[in-house]
From TrEMBL:
Source organism per UniProt: Halomonas cupida
Sequence ranges of Basic and acidic residues compositional bias: 479-490
Taxonomic classification: Bacteria, Pseudomonadati, Pseudomonadota, Gammaproteobacteria, Oceanospirillales
Name of the molecule in the record: Transcriptional regulator
InterPro entries: Aminotransferase_I/II_large, HTH_trans_reg/aminotransferase, PyrdxlP-dep_Trfase, PyrdxlP-dep_Trfase_major, PyrdxlP-dep_Trfase_small, Tscrpt_reg_HTH_GntR, WH-like_DNA-bd_sf, WH_DNA-bd_sf
SUPFAM superfamilies: PLP-dependent transferases, Winged helix' DNA-binding domain
SMART domains on file: HTH_GNTR
Signal sequence coordinates: none
Ranges annotated as spanning the membrane: none
Any one GO molecular-function label of the UniProt entry: transaminase activity
Domain HTH gntR-type: from-to ranges: 4-72
């Protein structure tokens, strides 16, 4: 038997074991030496089988560590480009969002498939925990006085260093520390709009941002968005010509929930489009530092020459959401942003700021990001493989470029809200699609979180969700598909969500 034929057999054997779950995403494979001894082949043949699998994207070589499984390959198609109602609409569905974010049980947190939690158990967070403990132990009374309104100077210095990685060069005085990214986005909206104004958004969009529009009495103008390339610039330009848009609110890098990252050319074109129509952009960059590819993608603010991009971010998705530390780089609106910060929350808590600044200054943050990017990319691939295996035929799945969110599009007769009602007895839940739309679209879509350890328990949870989805579709012939409700009645309840 030829050597070429033998290495192909070994390649196929390893590939089959990966697909069967003998070696799972993130697992370390036997070393080349171990593999050649187990199979009775030469080192050259064993190395060739590994190289073939690496070329196919099933495994990757890590310096001084060996070969690791990346993911079983599947050809699941991407979600289709969204087709929202291209007219300003009032936002609703607070009851459903409240059910998602309030009252999570420990078991539901364990799975965390529905919410936006990062991995809270990462070992690279241990230095931060020690710094937080140290800050509390060594704190003097001065640490409990009011901080600078703009936030801790050292933290703002570290933030500008982070921003420079995305091509956004700012001075620390250009940054305002906020209570999470949520407050940064809220301040930006208050700076730019009045109740009744129209805000253009990518669609689907983060439901927290949607609720900010509702709270301020704003109308959302949802723009068609593609899971690979992002918001449609052509549709956005038509909207700007047709409607009195006061601001554009987008997540162009590692988008939540679609996962795309717009390329530099499209980002530059978006900023230029806003300049021509004299509209400000609110950029949600909260997942940008979790981009899998190097170098880190550039932000919209990197292309901003006249201060019209207000960049919002935080450490809630990269570190710990309970820290409640975010920031706003408000461009030309800095003085007004400080005033809005003063009348909303005043200065921010001091101890967490100093601990995070130290964590960043010592290089722990960079090392943590490196570990999380690798982990989340592996988890993405494994979760996509599980979805391909367990969810109904016809399911489309995003391929996130960063972060830890997966967007699923099922056949149109599927009802993600009804799915959650089925999952209550299993103490599971998903983030249903209508939460990500002002008009209640995407009932046949859902979002899954893949941040935490993808162990046997999580594997079983995904399989259960897929089984429930299959059962629902089997009971719902296509001719009896339930249409999306827009009236907010009790039939749209999402009780039991986490």
């Amino acid at each position: 038997m030829s050597r070429t034929k033998r290495y192909e057999q070994l390649r196929d054997l390893l590939a089959e074991r990966i697909h069967q779950g003998v070696y799972r995403c993130g697992d370390r494979l036997p070393s080349v030496r171990q593999w050649c001894q187990q199979q009775g082949v030469s080192m050259t043949t064993a190395q060739a089988s590994f190289a073939a699998l690496e070329a196919e994207g099933l495994i990757e070589a890590r310096p001084r560590s060996g070969y690791f499984v990346t993911a079983p390959v599947n050809n699941t198609p991407l979600p289709q480009r969204s087709q929202p109602e291209q007219r300003p609409v009032h936002v609703s569905r607070w009851a459903q969002v409240k059910a998602l974010v309030v009252g999570s049980s420990p078991q539901q947190i364990r799975h965390a498939l529905a919410n936006g939690l990062p991995d809270l158990r990462a070992r690279t967070l241990l230095p931060l925990q020690r710094l937080l403990t140290q800050s509390q132990r060594q704190a003097s009374l001065t640490h409990f006085a009011y901080d600078s309104l703009a936030g801790d100077a050292e933290l703002r210095h570290q933030i500008t260093h982070l921003m420079s990685h995305s091509g956004c060069m700012r001075h620390q005085d250009d940054v305002v520390v906020t209570t999470g990214c949520q407050e940064a986005l809220a301040i930006a909206l208050r700076l730019l709009t009045q109740p009744g104004d129209v805000v253009a958004v990518d669609s689907p969009a983060f439901y927290g941002a949607m609720q900010m529009l509702e709270a301020r009495g704003l109308k959302a103008l949802e723009i068609p968005t593609d899971a690979e390339h992002g918001i449609s610039l052509g549709a956005l330009e038509l909207a700007l010509e047709q409607w009195p848009v006061k601001a554009i609110m987008v997540t162009p890098t590692c988008n939540n929930p679609l996962g795309y990252s717009m390329d530099d050319q499209r980002k530059k074109a978006l900023v230029e489009l806003a300049r021509r129509h004299d509209v400000a952009i609110i950029e949600d960059d909260v997942y940008g530092d979790l981009a899998y590819a190097a170098p880190r993608p550039r932000s919209l603010a990197a292309f901003d020459e006249d201060g019209r991009v207000l960049l919002c971010s935080s450490v809630s998705k990269t570190l710990l959401p309970g820290l409640r530390l975010g920031w706003l780089a408000p461009g030309r609106y800095r003085d007004r942003a400080l005033h809005e910060k003063y009348v909303s929350t005043g200065s921010s808590a001091t101890l967490a700021q100093s601990a995070v600044a130290e964590f960043m200054a010592r290089g722990h943050y960079a090392r943590h990001l490196t570990a999380m990017r690798r982990q989340y990319r592996l988890h993405r691939d494994q979760m996509r493989a599980w979805v391909h295996q367990y969810f109904p035929e016809g399911t489309r799945v995003s391929v996130p470029s960063g972060g830890f969110m997966l967007w699923l599009e099922l056949p149109e007769r599927f009802d993600s809200i009804a799915l959650n009602q089925c999952l209550v007895e299993h103490q599971l839940g998903v983030a249903p699609g209508p939460l990500f739309s002002a008009s209640g679209k995407y009932q046949h879509c859902l979002r899954l979180n893949f941040a935490s350890t993808l162990d046997d328990i999580t594997h079983a949870a995904v399989r259960t969700i897929g089984d429930c989805a299959r059962e629902q579709l089997a009971r719902r012939p296509e001719s009896k598909a339930i249409r999306i409700r827009h009236d907010g009645d009790k039939s749209s309840s999402t009780s039991g969500l986490i």
